[in-house]
Amino acid sequence: MSAITDSEGSEKGVKKFVDDWLIYDTILGEGAFGEVRLIANRKTREKIACKIMDFAKYKGSEVAITREIRIHSVLNHENIIKYYGLRKEPTRVYLFLEYAPGGELFQQIEPGVGMPSRDAQMYMKQLVRGVSYLHSKGITHRDIKPENILLHNGILKISDFGMATLFRHKGKERMLDKKCGTKPYLAPEILVGSYHAVPADVWSCGCVLVAMLAGELLWNCPHEDYPEFAQYKEGNYLTSSPWNRLGNTPLSLVTRILDLDPMKRISLEKILKHPWMTYNFSYDEADSSADSNSNGLHAIRRASMMEPPADRESPYVTLSQPNLPTRPVCLEHIIDKQQKTNKRRDNKWFSQPTHNEDLIISSELQFTQTPITKDNFSDLIQRMTRFFVTTQTEEKTAEALCSVLDALHYTWTVDGSGAISISTVDNMKNQLVFKVTIFKMEGKILLDFRLSKGCGLEFKKKFIKLKECLGNIVCKV
Ligand code: ADE
């Protein structure tokens, strides 16, 4: 029997999961074999992400799911989403993961602009630390991109180990040859033949850095058929966007990371020592009001960190261990037994190594006692792709939205939960699917946009366009 049941008298959008756990209709993310939902403990208010993978629906998924679990269950690092355990049903598996209320990193990136250098530096440090940890365990992620990077109170968390694999075992490295990942973030050598895991992940981190600093991707695919990549290969790229929007110091870091020769590519250790990574941006902020006092050398140094030199095209805009994760005690009842005890090694669903489970109570749990309801649920998810509207009813809002969608020639459908699912292509002709949920919150109507499939930055561009088109009903803040 499925863990999810329609509980009597339950609120709209919430179902009973198991014991005191409620599962919410709102989808946090979608992956190759299923979706990620929020589950919350009715009594303790503990919140967990639950990845539901349906191997009856996806042929051949069982092997991939088993590998993902085997890899994720041995990881324990601040910058990696924690794996708490699993529950298995005849056709489904539920993975219990740390919930990151800050959403995906791409939500923090303004298309065509990026984010403040200080934030980009902070996230890059955490990304590099998380990836270094993975590599120290002999594991490569193989799909590093802003959509797979989550945030929890400003802490970056690498998620989704669906493409991860072991590249080093007992000190012996193996070359990889599977062409996997997401094209704009893919290292070029992956398309050519066998490749080393470490520099390939390093390359993807560089693409994430460019996305954070410029709000734009460098190319659709790292292949000569794509003019932007061909120009890069020829060394003829500095005057085009987004290159011309990077200051000299970040540019030098990015080009060291995106070295076409994987053997010459900068290491993660050296990235952390690069002048752009060690530069104190917060000092700039404190200092900016005293610009007239700042000495000339400092001003020049600061400019090189942030602004492109005059001889490159502007315009430029600066917005300026070994211990395993502790899991919530109240989750114990719903995790499969053999995992908890770690005795049944014969089970193909890999066991979670034992760990100290004493007194595991999250800080949220200690400080809040308000029951979770439909009305306060949305506070748990901090998304930037949402806005309030002035329309009085959900129906009128849906009408306004659908007429804009029709005017823009988007294909849309209404799914079982009442969400509007929009299917289109982005500028690079890649499929883009996103969902809009309309619901009442604090007496007002809220439109919540969520990416289902495609590039996060392209999704944000479409979101901005739709928000503009709905300008006459968008609540001014
Ligand atoms: N989306 C996908 N996985 C998630 C998680 N663990 N927390 C929050 N949002 C997510």
What does this structure look like?
There is one protein chain. With about 475 residues, the protein is α+β, with helices and mostly antiparallel strands. It folds into three domains: about 15-100 and about 325-345, 2-Layer Sandwich (Phosphorylase Kinase, domain 1), CATH 3.30.200; about 105-305, Orthogonal Bundle (Transferase(Phosphotransferase), domain 1), CATH 1.10.510; about 355-470, 2-Layer Sandwich (TATA-Binding Protein), CATH 3.30.310.80. Helices cover about 30% and strands about 20% of the residues. It is built from 14 helices and 17 strands. It has helices at about 60-70, 115-135, 195-215, 225-235, 250-255, 270-275, 275-280, 280-290, 295-305, 335-340, 365, 375, 395-405, 455-470; strands spanning about 15, 20-30, 35-40, 45-55, 85-90, 90-100, 140, 150, 155-160, 165, 170, 170-175, 385-390, 410-415, 420-425, 430-440, 445-455. A six-stranded antiparallel β-sheet has the order 1-2-3-4-6-5, with helices on one face. Strands 13-17-16-15-14 form a five-stranded antiparallel β-sheet. The chain starts with 13 loop residues before the first strand and ends in an 8-residue tail after the last helix. Adenine (ADE) binds next to strand 2 and strand 6.
